[in-house]
Each structure stands twice: as C-alpha cells, then as structure tokens.
C-alpha cells in the first residue's frame, strides 16, 4: 500500500494498492496537468533518491522559511512562526524526512499547522503525525482534502485565533476558504501578514495581486478583490510574505489597499 504523491502539485493521496486515476487538484482549472501527463511518486521514493533536502532560512526573529531543494511540485515555501512559545507551521511542502523532523524538534517542534488553501495541503498529514499536532483548514475547502485525518480541524467563520498573536482570516478569492495568517509580534509593533498566494507579491515588490488561477492566468472579479481589501482594512501589518519567498516591506497594509484599487481600476477599464 503506497501513498501516491502527484509530481506536479505535491498532493499526497491515501494508502492504496493502485495509483489514483488522476490528481483531483491538478484536473481542476486553478491548477494543471503536466503536458507530459499525470505522474506519481511517493515520499519514500523521494527520500531514498537522495535528491531532495529542505533548506531553512531565518527570515527574521521568530520567522523561519522552509523550502525544498531542488524545487518540487509547485515549489512553494512554508514558514515556521514562533510567538510567545507557540510554534505554527504556515502552509506545507511535500518533502519531509528524518533530518527535517529532527532539526525542527531540536528547535522546539511544531504545535499546529495552518493552511492557506488546497494547493499546499501536500503531505500535511505526514507533518502532523511527525509532530503530533493538529491541522487547521477552513471548512469551505473541506472537499479538496484528498487524504483525510483525525488531526484535521475544519474551522468556520471569518477568523480563528490559533494562539496569542496568531490569527487566521478567511479572505476567499483564490479558493472559497482561502485564508491568511496575521502575526502580531509581542517583540515589536510591526505585525506580519502571511498570505500563501491568496495575495501574491508582484515583481515590483511594492505591489501585490490577486488571481483565481495563477498558472492559467484567470483573474478574480473586481467584487472579490474589493471584498478581500475590505476584510483586511482593519488589520495593520508592516510586512507581507507570500508562498514564493517574496516580501513586501513597510507599509505592506497600504500596499495591499493601493494594489486592490489598481486591480479593480484595470478590470473596469479605468486604469488605461
């Protein structure tokens, strides 16, 4: 019985004697099936290959990024946040091995995992079992969970406080349950927003953008972007980190609002 992993997106499926017929995540219009067709691997095969390793970078006090090298699947970055002694893994990457687990445990382990949206669920159950912790996913995205687990907690409503200083907000947009993490740091007043790609950092780092599908270039409607901006208006944050190691620095909250205004103006034909 093997737990197949989609090579294109990194989603892990339940134990089975046969590979899935298709990857449900990749077949959907927000992702894509590789031009060479559906391909599978397993976590065990990845570990035995000797190809992959996880790179840890200290981004700032209390914030560490984790990225698989060479890139696998979508190639996203996960973040480990420590606030007031609580350690939260924000989003997930597919590759996990004994060294990764031991290195994290030496620093204090993981108390909880929270996900922005289904493209980053990957091997979340492997991570949760390794660290004996819960996984938080918004209930609006329940249908996209491919490997069920008793460790998954489906939260509801517009916000959820995971721990002091760490609050999830449902923004929707890219997915119905699309969530971001607001980190109010005890050490200073400069809060951080971690967005996965519910909000994406642009090439010009003072701007962000919003999409229904990034690989297929399908925009979100103006109404959805306006809702996202309105939900974020009450929140102050000086920095914003996306899922691809891009950052907007001070004032990031203003950057989100001006970016939303520009996006809506473009869709409505007022920008150019």
Summarize the helices and strands and which ones pair or pack:
Blueprint: E1 4-6, H1 24-27, E2 40-42, H2 43-49, E3 53-60, E4 63-69, E5 78-83, E6 86-90, H3 98-107, E7 112-114, H4 124-131, E8 135-138, E9 152-155, E10 159-163, E11 166-170, E12 179-183, E13 192-194, E14 200-201, E15 208-209, E16 211-213, E17 218-219, H5 222-232, E18 239-241, E19 247-249, H6 252-267
Parallel strand pairs: 6-7, 7-8, 8-9, 13-18
Antiparallel strand pairs: 1-2, 3-4, 4-5, 5-6, 10-11, 11-12, 12-13, 14-15, 16-17, 18-19
Organism: Jeotgalibacillus terrae
Protein name: Metallo-beta-lactamase domain-containing protein
Domain Metallo-beta-lactamase: 75-239
In total, the number of strands is: 19
Looking at the overall shape, the CATH architecture is: 4-Layer Sandwich
Give the number of helices: 6
| Main β-sheet description | 7 strands, mixed
What is the alpha-carbon Rg in Å? 18 Å
Structural class by SSE content? alpha+beta
Please write the CATH class name: Alpha Beta
CATH superfamily caption: Ribonuclease Z/Hydroxyacylglutathione hydrolase-like
CATH topology: Metallo-beta-lactamase, Chain A
Q: Tell me the series of helices and strands, N- to C-terminal.
A: EHEHEEEEHEHEEEEEEEEEEHEEH
State the shape: globular
Strand order of the largest sheet: 3-4-5-6-7-8-9
Domain Metallo-beta-lactamase: 75-239
Protein name: Metallo-beta-lactamase domain-containing protein
Structure description:
This is Metallo-beta-lactamase domain-containing protein. Residues 75-239 form the Metallo-beta-lactamase domain. It comes from Jeotgalibacillus terrae. The protein is α+β, with helices and mostly antiparallel strands. It has a single domain (4-267), classed as Metallo-beta-lactamase, Chain A (4-Layer Sandwich), CATH 3.60.15.10. Helix content is 21%, strand content 28%. It contains six helices and 19 strands. A seven-stranded mixed β-sheet has the order 3-4-5-6-7-8-9, with helices on one face. Strands 10-11-12-13-18-19 form a six-stranded mixed β-sheet, with helices on one face. Strands 1-2 form a two-stranded antiparallel ribbon. Strand 3 (53-60) and strand 4 (63-69) form a beta hairpin. Helix 5 packs antiparallel against helix 6 (252-267). The protein is globular, with a radius of gyration of 18 Å. The termini are far apart.
């Amino acid at each position: 019985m093997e737990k197949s992993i989609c090579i294109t997106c990194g989603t892990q499926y339940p134990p089975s004697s046969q590979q899935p017929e298709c990857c449900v995540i990749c077949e959907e219009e927000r992702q894509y099936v590789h031009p060479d067709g559906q391909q599978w691997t397993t976590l065990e095969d990845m570990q035995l290959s000797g190809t992959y390793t996880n790179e840890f970078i200290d981004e700032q006090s209390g914030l560490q990024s984790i990225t698989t090298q060479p890139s696998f699947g979508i190639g996203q970055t996960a973040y480990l946040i420590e606030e007031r002694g609580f350690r939260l893994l924000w989003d997930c990457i597919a590759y996990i091995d004994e060294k990764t687990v031991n290195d994290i445990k030496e620093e204090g382990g993981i108390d909880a995992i929270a996900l922005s949206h289904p493209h980053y669920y990957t091997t979340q159950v492997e991570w949760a079992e390794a660290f004996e912790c819960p996984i938080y996913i918004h209930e609006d995205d329940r249908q996209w969970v491919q490997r069920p687990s008793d460790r998954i907690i489906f939260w509801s409503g517009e916000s959820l406080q995971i721990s002091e200083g760490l609050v999830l907000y449902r923004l929707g947009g890219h997915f119905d349950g699309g969530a971001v993490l607001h980190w109010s740091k005890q050490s200073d007043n400069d809060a951080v927003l971690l967005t996965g790609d519910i909000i994406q950092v642009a090439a010009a780092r003072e701007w962000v953008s919003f999409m229904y599908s990034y690989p297929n270039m399908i925009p979100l409607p103006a109404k959805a972007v306006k809702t996202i901006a309105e939900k974020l208006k009450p929140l102050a944050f000086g920095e914003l980190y996306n899922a691809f190691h891009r950052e907007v620095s001070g004032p990031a909250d203003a950057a989100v609002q001006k970016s939303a205004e520009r996006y809506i103006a473009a869709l409505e034909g007022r920008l150019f």
